[in-house]
């Protein structure tokens, strides 16, 4: 049974800051956001977690294996190097969607995202080490079948982007509404989903739904482990099995060894 630990990462009072005392240059804001996400991804990734940029001012991290001290260190590191601070909410549940709802509630209870007096909230309990297991996380790595041949080498970049995003939106909604899974676009034609325990048939149903609704064909590799890195790396190997075997759904061999990816 999965036991997902998620952290909501919210920039404190970010909207008002971007226009105080005057509106800031847009590319300066984009640069700040991208660097902040890169630092978050590096920090969490070094501890075998995953981070997703979502809306940049609100980001989501899969933090199984990170404790409260790690979260405090992240806040301290960002505050020392950026003109903004972070509030962090932590939630744990077998359903990723419920875990995120719990993490979100932890921050929202303290105050609004645009409350100038609310800074560096750290609320929520991490998964105790004694309760962790090798089945805490199921990660699914999707990609589009022959995206290069169908889109990249035939269409202009914006039309390609529309096709990929339509497929992502269809998958994201379906997995969230049907299974409480959370899906994130990670670049190119790749989507990573943090899921509860789903079966091969449930993944096939999701792929069929996206093809019927968005006319985008997907395949998926699935991995399970105690942390996001190991589960995600196993999912990548399973996705390669899809490519070699011409299949649409593959689950990773439990014996897959992880490496830096």
From TrEMBL:
Task: Give the protein's recorded name.
Answer: GTP cyclohydrolase III
Query: Source organism's superkingdom?
Result: Archaea
List the coiled-coil residues: none
Q: What does it do? A: Catalyzes the formation of 2-amino-5-formylamino-6-ribofuranosylamino-4(3H)-pyrimidinone ribonucleotide monophosphate and inorganic phosphate from GTP. Also has an independent pyrophosphate phosphohydrolase activity.
Q: Which UniProt keywords apply?
A: GTP-binding, Hydrolase, Nucleotide-binding
Asked if the Swiss-Prot or TrEMBL record annotates the protein with the keyword Coiled coil, the reply is no
User: Mind telling me which HAMAP family this protein's record contains?
Assistant: GTP_cyclohydro_3
Q: Which family does it belong to?
A: Belongs to the archaeal-type GTP cyclohydrolase family.
What organism, scientifically named, is this protein from?
Haloferax massiliensis
* Catalytic activity as recorded in UniProt: GTP + 3 H2O = 2-amino-5-formylamino-6-(5-phospho-D-ribosylamino)pyrimidin-4(3H)-one + 2 phosphate + 2 H(+)
EC number of the protein: 3.5.4.29
Q: Which GO MF terms are attached to this record?
A: GTP binding; GTP cyclohydrolase IIa activity
